[in-house]
Amino acid sequence: MPQESTVAVNGVTLSLYEWPGAEPTILLCHATGFHARCWDQVIAQLGGHRVIAVDMRGHGRSSKPAPPYAWKQFGYDVSALTRELNVRGAIGVGHSMGGHAVSLAAALNSQAFSRLLLLDPVIRPREGYSGPWVGSGHIAKRRNEWASPEEMYDRFRDRAPFLYWNPDVLHDYCQFGLLPNGNGGFQLACPPEIEASIYENSTMPDTMIYDEIASVDIPVRVVRSGKHAGKQLPDSFDTSPTAPDLARHFRHGTDLELGGFSHFIPMETPELTAQMILASH
Question: What is the pLDDT of residues 258-276, one digit of tens each?
Answer without folding.
Answer: 989 999 999 999 999 999 9
